[in-house]
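Q: How do we represent a protein-ligand complex in a form that can be generated token by token?
A: Start from the inputs.
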Amino acid sequence: MSKPKVIVTRKWPAAVEEKLKEHFDVQLNEDDIPMTTEQLQQALRTADAVCPTVSDSISAEVLSAEPMNAKILGNFGVGFNHIDLGAAKQNDLVVTNTPEVLTDCTADTAMTLMLMVARRAGEGERQVRNKQWTGWRPTHMMGTKVTGKTLGLIGMGRIARAMAHKAYHGFGMKIIFSDPYPPPQNVVDSLNAVARDSVDEVLQEADFVSLHCPGGKETYHLINSERLALMKPAAFLINSARGDVIDLSALIKALNEGTIAGAGLDVFEGEPAVPDALLAMENVVLFPHLGSATIETRVEMGMRVIENIKAFFDGDEPRDRVV
Ligand code: DGY
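Then emit the structure tokens for the protein with (2R)-2,3-dihydroxypropanoic acid bound:
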């Protein structure tokens, strides 16, 4: 029997690409150049499975490709707001993602952003590299203490819980959160966490606010100027979720006016473009969407995609089916 044809939209870790070749007739993207709308449509017309990632917009237009040959989108990533799920469903396409395997590394990234922005680590690094450091002094680059402070989590899914675990057990932080679907009470208790009734309450009370909600229509610009105004002037905002959860113009204004103390951002609306205003600010830490970017995790993500599409073509229910 011939192997299913699989098209991968970006370069994947070598070990995963080798594994793909064992099971499928695979078309890789060795140059790692993002595919155009037309190329994605051609992939859907010719492959049995297309494996996109967060940097591919799998819109209704892309999914209008005819005749549609693909039967499954094996997404490399946990978030799927770049895929029009309604259009996928209409085209009888199964969609899978890669949960769990990136939980800890993404939480580590959120912790890194929190520590870096609080302790002015990016700023300090720039000072040393630019040969501007003149030596130790009692008032040099004083930051904000993290240990013992209040961490407010917006969304309390897997990644938020992992961050809460590190922050509570490692840094003695008090954990508060808001989530319409809160975790089981035993999980809440193990983190000594306290649920708040609304996002606004978390924003008012936290010293560090970390966003962990999915992107998409429901959370679009959840953090706007009104909500930023609720935060303490000494508080910091961390985003390792999705860029469009924050209204960036409102955030830039809030940072300029001292409404909040700083921000640590791994994701941006319209990324990879980042507004010049943010690039010029010392009190923000900016990462190029590194949340899951460890060798271990990226290999596990790829293997999980393989597991999902292999199950599908074997006639089994894929473990991480989204639709
Ligand atoms: C995801 O998986 O959704 C991340 O944003 C990329 O790892």
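The CA atoms of residues 115 and 146 lie 7 Å apart. The longest strand covers residues 150-154.
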